[in-house]
Amino acid sequence: MKLTSKYNRTTLLIAVIVIITAGIAYYLSISYILTDQVSHLLTGEEKEIFEYVQANQELPEVYDSDVQRIVLTPVGEHHITRRYTDTPFFNKKENSYESGRALISSIRVKGQNYKIQILESRVETDDLIEAIFSITIGMILALIFVLYVTNRVVLRRLWRPFYNILAKIHLFNLRDALEIEIVPTEIDEFRQLNEAVSAMSLKVKNDYENLKAFTDNAAHELFTPIAIINSKLDTLIQQTELSEKQGKLVSDIYHTCGRLTRLNKSLLLLVKVENKLVKDEQQINMKEMITGMVDQFDELFRDKNLRVNCQAEDLTLFTSFYLMEILVNNLLTNAIRHNRVGGLINIRLTRNGLMVQNTGGGQALDSEHIFKRFNKSAESEGSGLGLTISQQICQNMGFNLTYKFIPPLHSFNVAFNRA
Amino acid sequence: MKLLIIEDEEGLRESIEDYFSEAGVICETAKDFPTALSKVSLYRYDCIVLDITLPGGNGLHILREIKEKNHSDGILIISARNSLDDRLKGLDMGADDYLVKPFHLSELRARVTAIIRRKTYNGSNVLKFNEIAVDLLAKEVSVKDQKVKLTPKEYALLLYFISNKGKVISKNAIAEHLWGDGIDMANNFDFIYSHIKNVRKKLTEAGCKDYIHAAYGMGYRFSD
Questions:
Q1: Which superfamily does A279-415 belong to?
Q2: pTM of this prediction?
Q3: A321 touches chain B (CB under 8 A)
Q4: In angstroms, what CA-CA distances link B187 with A252, A255, A307, A334, B192?
Q5: Which CATH number is B126-222 given?
Q6: Chain B CB contacts of A251 below 8 Å
Q7: What is the interface pTM, i.e. ipTM, of the complex?
């Protein structure tokens, strides 16, 4: 819900409640005053009757009007209590009942008690209530209209700087040189927001630059000693007096050195991919890439005596070549590494995705944990980062990497999610 | 053959110098930017091995200096920076090749040899080792004028051996050269052995001497 409509709804509700309350209060007080006035009128009439009787010792002539009627009834020795009542008033002219108010009183004339009933129509009061009701409704409608117009025109104009800032934040991209500049506005809150966002974007960019620099430095600093170890080993094996046993030792060091290199490369690659530092999007012939890689791995398949079943449809994707190569490489490497001797690998490329299946352990892997960093089986020689990197690459490319176990096949599926 | 090694890390510089030094190869070294700059402005080399991150300056400036003066020295960049940008930048500026640290010395040697071979191209692009002749353009191998059919990997392996003749090459280096560093699951390099066996068999069947010798169970040496 938009802020303006939320705000409107609240103000409207409050306004309607206030207007209705005010209408009721207005009605009650007017009604009270008018009743009081009618009562006053009735008392006046009564006084006139009393005065007339005192002066003439007889009852006055009474007549009816449209709004008033006086009825005098002999009641003998019966006593009448003086009181005001709400009584319907019959309007002869209109031939209908209207609301009315009466004063019932009594008087003694020539030893006879008379009941005096003075009736007054209150049709005017009803008219007044109607008027108050219409005015209230009218005001509610007017208020809704005014709020609507205010929202459309004034609020929209007021909030314009906010939407400008929002649009700028949406467009903000770490890799662009563009910064969030300050939009001039008179409103303090928006200016503060703008300044805060602008400062934050600068800081984020700075941190990002630092991170990139760190990645670079880490690579250089770590790879240099590894390079030296490697080169020293290469020099060492040129010596002729190495024994078979020493050769085995050197071989183990080589092997470990290679693992260290790959681990470091994987870590740096992961940082790079997570920070989207790789940008080499291009048209990639997927079929060509996958069949090429399967050829490349041929010796490894044969080494484990694996049967490889590769079906690839023609497909071109526009994405990073470097990352796509790593993704396919990781999936194939996994399928070989975790396979058993004489096992099977299925590779299927369709327009919708890439599936790599392999035989291996009889148990399903925990699909929640396999994509986490350094999650690997005890006997694995891998870095423990392969699937993490693969998943991150898929995420960058807008793909979806999932794992399923369909006995006896472990199946990794990349859904391309193409529109 | 004259070689200049520009590398600030002493350990690496010494190893490279050691590996390349043999009869007929003169190795010079530079450990920082000013030394390197004065050497490239005074002398000419067949190939320069150039580290990008140097104390006192960026190796790319040295590359620019050489290219601006139109010198024809072959240039191989060695760098720990494996970003595509850096690689493209180096090659765009006229470097002949780009090798990422860490690397095997045999790989460096193969690349340097390839650069020098391209520079000194004299019409016949045929590489000879005793009775073996490798036609680099047609990618064909013949022994005593008799053609030997090799697969692309076997061809690459033979070329790698000839470039590093007399040196012991570890199985790791061979695996990485032939399969790239995607080859990280192979603890045992038995599949390399089958390649070696095939090359050896094809060459000896064509009447060639067996030059491939196993070394300490961890590598091979190609020599007389």
A1: Histidine kinase-like ATPase, C-terminal domain (3.30.565.10)
A2: 0.64
A3: no
A4: 10, 8, 20, 14, 12
A5: 1.10.10.10
A6: 170-171, 216-218
A7: 0.85
